[in-house]
């Protein structure tokens, strides 16, 4: 997996075996014929998911790799693998995340908060820690975390729904990414809200909601397919600059969200 083409852009996308992550892999491979993409996912999904089909369709350009959110040793090993192959990594899209419970703040268990924080907050933080030096070797480094409007404190009253652990974790993620922006003047980094995506996560959230609140929310927003969202995100990410986009809370629906 040597990077013989200096002009190639090297990507790592986490949570890449289904939904938006998979669509991002496909969109980048289709748009940029020189892109090399590491598609991260749990080991059990790497041999059975559609990402394997994409790797076959784009030989030598897409590499399914084991990724577990928050696994410090595993993240460092992957960073060394990519460093050894290319000496750098140009763009990380930290897409892996969970949203698997519904509840108000007082109804949600401590374990539920802990589970969401471990994946949605510590996952991207550990990822950045492991890859910081490899990103810094790139002439155009980018670190983009997939977030959610649910993590906006300023929008709480406008987005009803009982999703305390998910919202808390995404708010914390937003803080961490914005702080990374100010601590690393060489980097383009920002949280990105993809809007409502017609994915397994969305469908499972609808099933869990017995109050009908979530169904009402859906009527007020556009629900896009993963492929539709991926095209928008790839354009935003590949054209982003530190001056215009760094440290901002991006949204496919409004351009920018309030924090």
From TrEMBL:
SUPFAM superfamilies documented for this protein: NAD(P)-binding Rossmann-fold domains
GO molecular function, one term: oxidoreductase activity
One Pfam family hit: adh_short
Stretches assigned to coiled coil: none
Keyword set, alphabetical order: NADP, Oxidoreductase
Family label: Belongs to the short-chain dehydrogenases/reductases (SDR) family.
Species in which this protein is naturally found: Pholiota conissans
Tree of life domain: Eukaryota
Database matches in InterPro entries: Fungal_SecMetab_SDRs (IPR051468), NAD(P)-bd_dom_sf (IPR036291), SDR_fam (IPR002347)
Record lineage: Eukaryota, Fungi, Dikarya, Basidiomycota, Agaricomycotina
Any one cellular-component term (Gene Ontology): cytoplasm
Protein name: NAD(P)-binding protein
């Amino acid at each position: 997996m040597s990077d013989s083409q200096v002009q190639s852009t090297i990507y790592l996308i986490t949570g890449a075996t289904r939904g938006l992550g998979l669509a991002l892999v496909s969109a980048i491979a289709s748009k940029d014929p020189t892109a090399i993409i590491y598609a991260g996912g749990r080991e059990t999904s790497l041999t059975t998911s559609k990402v394997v089909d994409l790797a076959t369709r784009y030989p030598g350009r897409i590499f399914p790799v084991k990724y577990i959110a928050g696994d410090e040793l595993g993240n460092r090993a992957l960073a060394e693998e990519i460093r050894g192959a290319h000496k750098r990594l140009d763009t990380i899209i930290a897409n892996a995340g969970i949203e698997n419970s519904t509840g108000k703040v007082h109804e949600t268990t401590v374990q539920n908060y802990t589970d969401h924080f471990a994946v949605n907050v510590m996952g991207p933080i550990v990822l950045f820690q492991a890859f910081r030096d490899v990103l810094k070797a790139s002439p155009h480094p980018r670190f983009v975390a997939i977030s959610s409007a649910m993590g906006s404190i300023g929008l709480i009253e406008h987005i009803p729904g009982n999703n305390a652990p998910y919202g808390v974790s995404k708010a914390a993620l937003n803080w961490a990414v914005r702080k990374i922006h100010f601590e690393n003047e060489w980097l383009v980094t920002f949280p990105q809200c993809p809007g409502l995506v017609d994915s397994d996560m969305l469908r499972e959230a609808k099933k869990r909601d017995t109050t009908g609140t979530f169904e009402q929310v859906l009527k007020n927003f556009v629900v896009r397919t993963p492929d539709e969202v991926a095209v928008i995100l790839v354009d935003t990410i590949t054209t982003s600059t530190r001056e215009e986009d760094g440290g901002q809370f991006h949204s496919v629906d409004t351009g920018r969200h309030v924090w």
